[in-house]
Specification:
3-stranded antiparallel beta sheet; 7-stranded mixed beta sheet; Aspartate Aminotransferase, domain 2; about 375 residues; 12 strands; binds pyridoxal-5'-phosphate; alpha/beta; Aspartate Aminotransferase, domain 1; about 35% helix
Amino acid sequence: MSTPERPNVKLRPEIVAVSAYKQGRAAPSDGFKLSSNENPFPPLPGVIEAVNAASAELNRYPNAGGLALRTRLAERHGVEVGQVHIGSGSVALLSQLISAAAGAGDEVVYAWRSFEAYPGLVTVTGARSVQVPNRADGGHDLPALAAAITDRTRVVIVCTPNNPTGTIVTADEFAAFMELVPSDLLVLLDEAYYEFVTRTDAVNGIPLIGRYPNLVVLRTFSKAYGLAALRIGYAIGPQEVLDAARSAAIPLSVTDPAQIAAIASLDNEEALLERVARIASRRDQLRDALIEQGWNVPDAQGNFVWLATGDETDAANDAFFDAGLTVRAFAGDGIRISVGEPESVEKLSEVAADIVRNLPNGHPGKRLG
Ligand SMILES: Cc1ncc(COP(=O)(O)O)c(C=O)c1O
């Protein structure tokens, strides 16, 4: 039987037009993968043992309610168990919450550039993305985000620290923003990189949950906790909103090993904080070195830095790749580089200095004057 060149299956054209989520390139064999904002440290002590023990039950479906982890998170954050929802990565929670609120003909407002999964998640629901350009310093333009809200808007996403620019939203900026947002419009505060934030004026969404009936905060175990492979994240917000997200979830998608690893990681918060502090200090040193070389690096509060390489992005990406560093390039815009192993940081500084010296047309990320 011959395969037809174009299968005649009726698909949604807007979905066919979306390219599937692109994962960060793998590292060359002797290089470093700095393209996915992963944690360079192995899982926290006790995690591998706990996951190994759980693997004896791999023939069983997972615990659907996730009660043990949700109870633990509720205690940790001072909220009710019903105000905690877990998902197979915070990206799954984003998907559920957007689907719970937005459908065909609706709008979802978010800053751009931001997390590259947002546009696809919105398109799948049938809603339309309304992207509001970031400020020149890479930060969200919150007054412009508020001004983009219309009668059709069903969700607003705020990402802090913003992936990929690294900038935060301050507590004051967020409070002023929430004054402008209708109280029946769902606001998703994506804090995937919260643990790396060192700025004391940054917003912290979880204590605000009681204050705003329309706010849901998203956190993940993928970044600071180093559990990216297991796919586990959580949302904290009003129970009725999270119940709608639970209804939009694929059943049984959070595995028991993931839940057990998350609990074992929460048992080790001291070690976690120590690692996070090391990554944050490595990040600050890297940013200082890049600024010293002439790069204009936005405030970096996640586990990554952003180089606004503009039209030189492909050439700069190649220069990093040739030196064994896989970074995340957004053509025509810039390059996001994760803070990885100490040796990778040294190498990165060397290559960045070479780029400043050698690119034929200079680059917009370079400080002028
Ligand atoms: C801003 C932001 N939100 C959410 C996620 C999703 O993380 P995960 O699904 O691994 O929890 C990421 C991952 O890179 C991210 O950068």
